[in-house]
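Worked Example 4.2. Consider the chain below.
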Amino acid sequence: MSLFGDGLDAAVQKTFTRPAPRSAGAQMRYLVKQLKGTKAVAQMLRISQRTVERYVKDQIKKPRPELATRLEREVKKRWQPQIRARARAASTDGIVINTRARMGYTAPIGSTDQDRIRHLTVALPPQYAARLFDAHEQGAGDARLQEIAAEALKEVYFQDAGRRAGSLEEVRFTDIEHLEFDL
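Applying the procedure from the previous section yields the following C-alpha cells:
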C-alpha cells in the first residue's frame, strides 16, 4: 500500500464527475475499450485473453480478490482523463496536506529536535504539488513522495518561508496516523 501515492490518487478522484464502473464486467469492458483489445488487457492484468472475454460477456461475474484489486486500480488510473488532467492543472494553485504524524527534524545542537505528534493542515505551494504529482506519475515510491512532502512542510510550516528556523536541516515523518490531500 502506498500511503502518499494513494492519497494523491484519492485527491484527484474526489474531483470525478461520474462514478467509475463497479461491476467486473463493466470494468473489463472499459479497459478493453481504453486499451483497444482483450489481449492488451489480459497482459496488463496477468490473466488469459479468454478470461477477459468471459468477463466482457458477463460469463464470469466475481473476480478473485487480487484480480478485483488490480482491475479496480487500473480502471481508476484511466477513469476520466480530462478530469484528471484538470485536477493536475489545478495543482498550479497548490495542494493541501492534512496529516497527523510523528515528525522529527535535524537541527543544530541545543535545539529541541525531539520527534512529536503533530496535526497539520498546510497549503503547499504549487511547485511542491507539481513535484508530488510528477514523482507519482513517474512511479516514485512512497519513500520519495514522503521526502517531497517533508521538504515542503519544512519550508512552509517549520521555516515559514524563511522567516524562522533558518538553521533547520531536515524534517522527517517517523510515524503517520492520518494523511489526506486536497486540491
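The chain is about 50% helix and 20% strand. The chain has a mean pLDDT of 84. Compare this with Example 4.1 before moving on.
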